[in-house]
Every structure is written in structure tokens, then in C-alpha cells.
Design brief:
heterodimer, A: mainly alpha, B: about 550 residues, FAD/NAD(P)-binding domain, Glutaredoxin, eight-stranded mixed β-sheet, seven-stranded mixed β-sheet, 28 strands
């Protein structure tokens, strides 16, 4: 069974965070929502593994 | 409006109406002469069973109902002897295109391989299909068709049902052993039995119009998201027989259904879609909302619900009519076996056990399509539009675009009637699968396997060209016969596709049920195992009995 990796996996976390903000700069809330949706879909396809995606979704909703 | 002249099937009083004393008794009464009720009547007729078919009207259905009949449905209609006129009159198609705005997102072809007798779909308006089914039912000559007979009352009895029926000559009563409720989405019987029809109702309204026009659009299913002629909404264009075209236009949640069906509103919409210069006549127009729901159980003692009376879906996917025909295909051989004393009555529970999951799958697919086509929140619209944004460049996103997942043959993979594989198969048709077609030669003529397997009885397909052993010959003469067809002897595997599609090696044996679904398979023919698998499919075996006792 594949497991969602939640231990640090990004070499330069600040860069990733900054890129996410930069991506949305100048966008309306609606446009941002759509860009995020595209991003989720692209990453979901990259992961491909339903179990990992399910774990990610559980984590995402649990921290709300 | 409407150029189709509906036939009138005359009401004729039945001697049952003048009967004194106890009501007339019939083994089987079917309520509802729609496509599903007529299919039940035809199927039982081919099995020698006389039925009474009650319908409140005296003609076929009107307006925009089912249009797409699937390959599996056509195979069933072939068994009943009525597919040829439907295919001749209907429009054969297999490709679809999905557009966003004016640009094409992708095209699909449902015909993934050759060597099948029937195409993935034909389009034929429901009223024409019904006319052909009525003609076939009359030809088969075992159905007492009673038009203008409306069921108004229901009473469960120890060994059947008593119905109250209203006619132009007044009311009368009828008794039957089994009642098949094929009376549609607004089933009166469902209401008379007080049964809940649970599920989802979708708020978006759709304008459904059938127009007659001369057009050279290709014979394809065209679906638009956000077309210029219906901004922000969806649209569907699909050809039917006799130059009639089906158009679905999404109107949204706030549309006024009364206003939207007026010509002042409809005609400009259609002109915007079809072009200002194209002449067309409106055949039918209506404004609909869609539902996806079902009865918890399809069998209630001696009453069996079937088709839209049992379950209802949205039209995206052609899963309503085709599900109903497969319901009939599943039910009729079982009912015939019970009536003949070849199977216990509890075999009828397997109709619910097999068609329940099949229809859940239809509801799931239809619900998902409707959710994609009519997003209900800001975020669901964002995801939907994100999929459409990514689709032109990314195949994975095209796979998520959902304009309807079209009906495929149901597979009873988990049915207790199946004998699980004991031998090793890499591929082929696992138990529960309906007959995989392939080209053959039989009796010196080119033909297709599906016709040889769909005989209405149990059929064995044996990949062996030796003489038939005595034990297999004995099975062919049993009370419930299993007729063995030898590949290479009784039929020729014309292109080698039978062997390939069934993952067959020398000696492989497939057992088909009377509805042409595989129920067991082995790497070699063993008569006692074949007989046991047949008995299991009939609900006669100990394992099924024990499983039932444990429920």
C-alpha cells in the first residue's frame, strides 16, 4: 500500500511557497480558484495512486 | 406539431370483463406497454408463456423519450426477432465529438474493434421502437394486449395479486400469479404499493426538442460545453430516424419551464444553434428536470418492478431504456424457469441481486455526468472548467470530460448464480459477462456467435472438434438442456476471434445462461460440473440455498 509522504520532501520550502503566491498574483478570487483546480488536477494525475490521493484529501479536510 | 402519425391500437373488451364470480386468473400480467413491458411480453412469448399486457393508453409514447439503443439491447432484440427493422430504420452511429465554445475538445469512437454483428448504438425514436415491438408481440401471438386498461387497485394475495382495472366499459378485476410492473417513471403500481422512490432530483432545467430538418451533419453525437448559441450552458445534437434530430439545451436552474417551451422562446434558440437559414419543423418540445433514483428492492413478493418503474436516470448515457431492456432479459428466463417448475421461486430474487448493482452503476454514472454538466457550486464549476481548460492539451483531462458515459452491457460479476473460475484464465469472458460477439461460419453461412449463443436456453461453447461425448449429448436432452456447440465442428471460427476473445485453449468450455451471460467456464469439459453450474444458475444448488439461509 502506498503512503502519502508528509515528512519534508522539498529542498527549498520557501521557494515553493513563494512560487505558489507568485502564481496567483494579480488574479481575482475566481481566477485563483480555477488555477488551483487545474493545479490539483495536474498533480492528482501525476500521483495517480488513488490511495495516496485519498490520504491527501483526508489530511486536507482534517486540518480545516 | 409532430409529423409522426401515431398508430391507434383499438380497445377491445375482453371476456374477462363480463365474467361473473371470481376474477379471471392469468399466470403473468404485465402493466405498461412501453419498450420494457413489450420486451417482457415478447421474451415470455418466445418461451411459450401467454401473458396479459395492460396499458392505460391506446397508442405508442409521444415526444422526446429514449433514442439510443445499445449493442446489447440490439442483441436481445435479435433474440426476440425484432432488431432488423429497428436497425434498418434507425441511424447507426459510433462516434461522438465534444466541443467547448466553438472548438473541438476531442472525438471518441465507441466501436473499439470489428467482428461484431451489431454496432455500439442505433438511434431510433422510442415511438418507432415501440411500434416495432408491438408488431413483434402480435406476431408472436401469445400476448393478450389490452389497451385502455388502467390499473386502479392492487391487492396482494397468498399466491399472486388481484388488480382492479378501469376500462371504457367500466371496471373489472383480474388475478395473476406474477405481476410485472413496467409502468414507467410515474408508476401507478409503485404508488399503489406505497413504495419509496429514493434518490436525487437535479434542479437544472433542460429544453428537449425534436426537430425535423434536412441536414448533412455527420451521424455523430455532438455535445457542447458553453456554445456561443447557449452561453454558459450545454447542448447536445443527435440524429434520429426520418430526418428528426434531438436537441438538448441546458437552461439552468432559474428558467421558467412554461415560458421556455413557448415557440417565441424556443425558435430563436434553435435558429441560433442551427443557423438562421436552415428550415426546420418542431416535432416536439418540452422542458425537463432529471432524476436519478430507484426502489430499494425490485421484487416485492409476486410483484416485480422493471425499467423506469424500478429505477430512473438522467438521459446522459442512454442508460434508461437500455437498462430496462436488460432488466427484461435478466428476468424473463428466470420467470419462465420458475413457472415451468425448473427453478425455485427464490431464483427471482437473483433478478434483484443482479439488476440492483447494474442499475446502481447506471445511477452512479448518470449522476456523475449530470454533476459534470451542471455544476452546482462555485468550486464544482471551477473544477469542471479546469478540466475543460486542460483537456485540449492533456489526455488525462480529456478522460475526465464527462458529457455522458454511454451504456455498456451489464456484467453480473458478483452474482451467486455464477460458478467462480477454478481453472486459470488470463482474459476472456469471466462469469457474469454477456456474450462477446465474433464472426463465425455456421451451416455454410457467415454469421455471428451472439446469435448462436442467444437461443433462449443454456448453451455450451466447446473449443473441441471431436465427436460429442455421451455425457454431453445427455445434457442436451435433459429437462433443462445444455446444448453444446463445438468450435471447429458445429461452427467455424471465421477470423480466429472466438478463440482470442474467449482466451480459449483446446478443450475450453464456456457455459452461457439463457440470457447469453457466461455463468461458468473451464479448461476442459466435465459433464457433472456443467450440470452443477447449470443448476446453480437456476438457483437449485445447495450453496445458493445455504447463502440464502444465512442472509
Amino acid at each position: 500500500m502506498s503512503t502519502l509522504r508528509t515528512s519534508p520532501n522539498i529542498a527549498r520550502p520557501d521557494d515553493v511557497y513563494a512560487r505558489l503566491l507568485e502564481l496567483h498574483r494579480g488574479l481575482s478570487d475566481d481566477e485563483s480558484m480555477r488555477v488551483n483546480a487545474r493545479l490539483v488536477l495536474l498533480l492528482a494525475n501525476h500521483i495517480g495512486d488513488m490511495e495516496v490521493l485519498e490520504q491527501a484529501m483526508r489530511e486536507a479536510i482534517a486540518t480545516c | 406539431m409532430g409529423s409522426h402519425r401515431p398508430p391507434v391500437y383499438p380497445y377491445k373488451p375482453s371476456p374477462d370483463q363480463r365474467r361473473r364470480g371470481s376474477p379471471a386468473h392469468h399466470p403473468v400480467i404485465i402493466v405498461g406497454a412501453g419498450p420494457v413491458g413489450l420486451t417482457v411480453a415478447a421474451d415470455l412469448a418466445t418461451r411459450g408463456i401467454a401473458t396479459v399486457l395492460l396499458d392505460e393508453d391506446d397508442t405508442v409514447s409521444t415526444g422526446s423519450r429514449a433514442i439510443c439503443w445499445s449493442k446489447r439491447t440490439l442483441e436481445i432484440f435479435d433474440r426476440l426477432g425484432c432488431a432488423d427493422p429497428m436497425v434498418a430504420r434507425g441511424i447507426t452511429w459510433s462516434t461522438g465529438k465534444v466541443f467547448r465554445g466553438t472548438g473541438q475538445l476531442y472525438a471518441f469512437d465507441l466501436q473499439s474493434e470489428t467482428g461484431h454483428r451489431r454496432p455500439p448504438f442505433i438511434n431510433l425514436q422510442q415511438y418507432l421502437a415501440e411500434e416495432m415491438l408491438v408488431a413483434r408481440v402480435i406476431e408472436l401471438g401469445r400476448t393478450d394486449l389490452r389497451w385502455k386498461n388502467r390499473v386502479t387497485g392492487f391487492q396482494a394475495r397468498a399466491d399472486g395479486v388481484r388488480l382492479s382495472v378501469e376500462t371504457p366499459d367500466g371496471p373489472y378485476e383480474l388475478d395473476c400469479g406474477y405481476l410485472i410492473a413496467a409502468d414507467g417513471a410515474r408508476s401507478a403500481l409503485r404508488r399503489l404499493l406505497g413504495l419509496e422512490f429514493r434518490g436525487r432530483v437535479f434542479e437544472d432545467r433542460f429544453l428537449i426538442a425534436d426537430v425535423r430538418m434536412k441536414a448533412d451533419f455527420p451521424t455523430e453525437r455532438w455535445f457542447w460545453f458553453d456554445p456561443p448559441f447557449n452561453p454558459g450552458q450545454s447542448a447536445l445534437l443527435h440524429r434520429q430516424a426520418d430526418d428528426v434530430w434531438r436537441i438538448d439545451l441546458q437552461l439552468g436552474r432559474d428558467a421558467d419551464p412554461e415560458l421556455e417551451r413557448t415557440p417565441e422562446r424556443v425558435l430563436p434558440r434553435l435558429r441560433a444553434m442551427l443557423g438562421p437559414d436552415r428550415p426546420f419543423e418542431l416535432e416536439w418540445v418540452s422542458v425537463y428536470t432529471f432524476q436519478c433514483r430507484r426502489l430499494d428492492r425490485f421484487r416485492h413478493g409476486r410483484v416485480i418492478f422493471i425499467g423506469d418503474a424500478a429505477h430512473q436516470v438522467s438521459p446522459f448515457g442512454a442508460r434508461g431504456g437500455n437498462a430496462g431492456i436488460q432488466d427484461a432479459d435478466n428476468l424473463c428466463w428466470k420467470l419462465a424457469a420458475v413457472l415451468a417448475g425448473h427453478a425455485p421461486e427464490h431464483l427471482l430474487d437473483s433478478y434483484d441481486a443482479e439488476r440492483g448493482p447494474a442499475n446502481d452503476e447506471n445511477i452512479l454514472n448518470s449522476t456523475r455526468s449530470t454533476d459534470f454538466i451542471t455544476p452546482k457550486s462555485k468550486i464544482s464549476r471551477a473544477f469542471r472548467d479546469a478540466v475543460l481548460d486542460l483537456a485540449p492539451r492533456h489526455a488525462f483531462a480529456r478522460a475526465m470530460v464527462n458529457s455522458g458515459r454511454l451504456s455498456v452491457a451489464a456484467k453480473n460479476g458478483h452474482s451467486a448464480l455464477n460458478t467462480p473460475d477454478r481453472d486459470r484464465f488470463e482474459d476472456g469472458a469471466e462469469p457474469g459477462t454477456s456474450c462477446l460477439d465474433a464472426p463465425i461460419i455456421m451451416g455454410g453461412r457467415d454469421g455471428f456467435l451472439v446469435d448462436r449463443v442467444s437461443t433462449g436456453g443454456f448453451v455450451g461453447l466447446w473449443f473441441e472438434d471431436s465427436p460429442l461425448p455421451a455425457e454431453l449429448a445427455a445434457l442436451a436432452a435433459a429437462a433443462v438442456p445444455v446444448r453444446t456447440l463445438r468450435v471447429g465442428r458445429d461452427l467455424v471460427d471465421r477470423e480466429g476471434l472466438v478463440r482470442r476473445r474467449y482466451d480459449a485453449t483446446q478443450g475450453t468450455y464456456y457455459l452461457f445462461r439463457p440470457d447469453a451471460h457466461v455463468t461458468a467456464r473451464w479448461r476442459r469439459a466435465d459433464a457433472p460440473a456443467i450440470a452443477a453450474a447449470r443448476d446453480r444458475a437456476l438457483g437449485n444448488d445447495m450453496a445458493t440455498a445455504l447463502r440464502r439461509a444465512g442472509e
